[in-house]
Design goal:
CATH topology: Rossmann fold
Largest sheet: 6 strands, parallel
Helix content: 25-40%
Strand order of the largest sheet: 2-1-3-4-7-8
Order of helices and strands: EHEHEHEHEEHEHEH
Oligomer: single chain
């Protein structure tokens, strides 16, 4: 008997498994008897360490894993999807993460834990190492909202041209349409 499909959720910068989307996805799966199909590690703020944590979660997986990444987690998910031949749902992904986060070098606090950390130029360089030179469009479901105040959604449309795309007018960086798209997300993930 084949192992069941599962989801590896990757949160964004300064976020955690306690994020709104991670909790909502977990609750949605639990309500359907699928709570054990979600992994959501706390990603360190250091990019290569975050990838190490995600890859450790992937190595623990039995069955097919689909990545779901939000913002910086979407950037990580794309790199991991290309490296490990996986499918991924990208939610308002940080397409140009090194450029975006180079403007955020300095001290930060995790939104949920309050833990403070320094984000450095070296971390920006690590993000550059995680840029995928190309993407395989058919492996992605791209979810963007045009009202994202942090990222230009058009960059994602261009980067993931040819992928399945759901573009919602309005919204914001938190992706307000997330609750109503949960059925499409878990269907794409094979659950």
């Amino acid at each position: 008997m084949a192992a069941a499909s599962r989801i590896l959720y990757l949160h964004g910068f300064c976020s955690s498994p306690a994020s709104w989307k991670a909790r909502l996805l977990g609750d949605f799966l639990k309500a359907r008897g699928l709570g054990d199909r979600l992994a959501c590690p706390a990603l360190p703020p250091v990019p290569l360490a975050a990838i190490g944590s995600a890859e450790a979660a992937l190595s623990d997986a039995e069955g097919e894993t689909t990545l779901v990444g939000s913002s910086l987690g979407g950037y990580y998910a794309a790199w991991l999807a290309e490296k490990h031949d996986l499918r991924a749902v990208l939610i308002n992904p940080a397409v140009m993460a090194p450029e975006l986060l180079s403007g955020l070098v300095g001290k930060h606090s995790n939104f949920h834990t309050g833990e403070s950390f320094d984000f450095t130029d070296e971390h920006v360089n690590e993000l550059r190492l995680l840029e995928s030179p190309q993407v395989t469009a058919e492996r992605y479901l791209l979810l963007v909202e045009t009202g994202d105040e942090v990222l230009d959604y058009r960059q994602a449309l261009q980067r993931y041209a040819g992928s399945r795309q759901i573009v919602i007018d309005g919204g914001d960086h938190s992706f307000l349409a997330f609750p109503r798209l949960l059925p499409q997300i878990i269907e794409f993930c094979g659950l």
